[in-house]
């Protein structure tokens, strides 16, 4: 995870700081619904998902705070997930590797209100 985090830090701008990060999976649609593993990173400027190279194809999904709406935590039987609307499309963050998903959602809401 630290190698992946170091690669993700290269994407940051000079005035950007990481507020929260966690290992998770992003539910994406490639002919069918697929959960891609990676890191969800919250900065003072944006929210983004960075996944490892899979056959020379890293995944990078950036979500600007201006286009995020309906952000909420969904309680599941084994783990919680975060869902939000981004540019008229639902995004799902699953398999979140933190015990406090609620605090992550609160921090994202705090950045959205700025």
Walkthrough of the structure:
- By secondary structure, this protein is an alpha+beta fold.
- The chain has a 7-stranded antiparallel sheet with strand order 4-3-2-1-7-6-5, sandwiched between helices.
- It is built from 2 helices and 7 strands, in the order H-E-E-E-E-E-E-E-H.
- The chain is globular and about 35 Å long.
- The longest helix has 12 residues, at 101-112.
- The mean pLDDT is 92.
- Residues 12-109 form the YokE-like PH domain.
- It comes from Bacillus wiedmannii.
Task: Give the helices and strands, then pairings.
Layout: H1 2-9, E1 18-29, E2 33-43, E3 46-51, E4 59-64, E5 68-74, E6 81-86, E7 89-94, H2 101-112
Antiparallel strand pairs: 1-2, 1-7, 2-3, 3-4, 5-6, 6-7
* Anisotropy-based shape: globular
The tally of domains stands at: 1
> Number of DSSP helices?
2
Gyration radius (Cα, Å) is 13 Å
Mind telling me the CATH class? Mainly Beta
Strand order of the largest sheet: 4-3-2-1-7-6-5
Multimer state: single chain
The main β sheet shows up as: 7 strands, antiparallel
Into which percent range does the helicity of residues fall?
Answer: 10-25%
Indicate the low-confidence ranges by residue numbers.
Answer: none
CATH superfamily: Pleckstrin-homology domain (PH domain)/Phosphotyrosine-binding domain (PTB)
Examine the coordinates and then state which fold CATH places here, giving the name of the CATH topology: PH-domain like
β-strand number: 7
Q: Helix and strand string, N-terminal first?
A: HEEEEEEEH
Cα-to-Cα separation, first versus last residue: 30 Å
CATH architecture designation: Roll
């Amino acid at each position: 995870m630290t190698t992946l985090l170091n690669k993700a830090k290269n994407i940051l701008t000079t005035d950007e700081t990481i507020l929260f990060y966690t290992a998770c999976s992003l539910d994406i649609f490639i002919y069918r619904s697929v959960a891609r593993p990676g890191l969800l990173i919250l900065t003072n400027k944006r929210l983004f998902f960075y996944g490892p190279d899979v056959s020379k194809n890293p995944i990078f999904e950036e979500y600007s705070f201006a286009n995020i709406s309906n952000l909420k935590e969904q309680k599941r039987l084994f783990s919680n997930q975060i869902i939000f609307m981004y540019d008229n499309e639902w995004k799902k963050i699953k398999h979140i590797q933190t015990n406090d998903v609620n605090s992550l959602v609160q921090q994202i809401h705090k950045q959205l209100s700025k």
